[in-house]
Amino acid sequence: MQDLILATQWIHVLLALKAPDDQEFSARMEHLLAELGRSKIAYLHEDELRSLGGSCAIPLAKYIAAERPAEEKRQQVEAARILADLAPSWAIPDLIQLLSNPNGEVRGHVARALQRLTGQTQGRPAEEWRTAAWAQSAPTQRFWEQWWDQNKERYPARPGR
Question: Which of 16, 32, 46, 76 is the most buried (most CB within 10 A)?
Answer without folding.
Answer: 76
